[in-house]
Design a protein that fits this description.
Elements lengths: L2 H12 L16 E4 L2 E4 L7 E6 L6 H12 L1 H6 L2 E7 L3 H15 L7 E3 L4 H5 L14 E6 L5 E7 L7 H17 L13 E3 L5 H7 L5 E4 L2 E4 L2
Parallel strand pairs: 3-4, 4-5
Antiparallel strand pairs: 1-2, 3-6, 6-7, 8-10, 9-10
Length: 225
């Protein structure tokens, strides 16, 4: 091992451990100032929430994402789902950026953006990755259900924008799994067949043959909703 490698390893070991929220547990609570006033997690009780971070205001990739989220806003609302953005920027930077997007691109931003200069929300949700930057958040996306439970997490690097259509699809998929107790296959969209959870006993496996599902094998059965 070279001296340089040893130094890099030591720096990595000395970096604070990243706090990461966990799926199917209560999402980290927060109370923060936003472009729509003070917001806290409990404000979204009874609704789904997509909480997403971006590295910085007035950056091109983030601008494309915000415009795409704004264009899809009504789709999320139809799904009983709210949007909430975040970056480690001041409220004044957020307001100026929102106005800039409206003036230069003709796109209104209808959802609030959290001011997180203190990095409290970013750190609670594991949005700050020291290997990327100590002072900005990566492109993190969290889907939180109406009970405040964290149901999905997505992380993207600074250089690559997210697919907002995929996040809409993910919300559809999670809502379907929650309501019907099923799983969804790769690329599933509403109207496609869903996957029936596999049986856990021999008796259940035998019974399944006569339950009207479309079965390729005992563990792989689908049905229409």
């Amino acid at each position: 091992m070279t001296d340089t490698q040893a130094t890099q390893d030591q720096v990595t070991q000395n970096q604070p451990r990243l706090a990461m929220p966990r799926l199917n547990e209560r999402a980290p609570d927060f109370k923060a100032n936003t472009t729509h006033g003070m917001k806290q997690l409990s404000d979204y009780d009874g609704r789904w929430l997509v909480l997403f971070s971006h590295p910085a205001d007035f950056t091109p990739v983030c601008t494309t994402e915000f415009m795409a989220f704004a264009r899809a806003f009504d789709k999320f609302q139809e799904r009983n789902c709210d949007l909430l953005g975040l970056s480690i920027d001041s409220i004044h930077a957020h307001l100026a950026w929102v106005q800039n997007i409206k003036e230069k691109f003709g796109q209104e931003i209808p959802f609030p953006i959290i001011e997180d200069i203190s990095m409290q929300v970013s750190n609670a949700y594991g949005m700050v990755h020291p290997g990327v930057s100590d002072t900005s958040a990566v492109r993190a996306t969290f889907v939180i259900d109406p009970k405040g439970t964290l149901r999905a997490m997505l992380y993207y690097p600074k250089t690559n924008g997210r697919s907002i259509d995929e996040i809409v699809r993910l919300v559809d998929s999670l809502q379907t799994s929650t309501e019907h107790g099923v799983a969804t296959p790769e690329g599933w969209k509403p109207g496609d067949k869903v996957i029936v959870p596999p049986p856990n006993t021999v008796a259940e496996a035998e019974k399944r043959k006569n339950e009207g599902y479309e079965c390729t094998d005992w563990y792989f059965c689908t049905k229409s909703l």
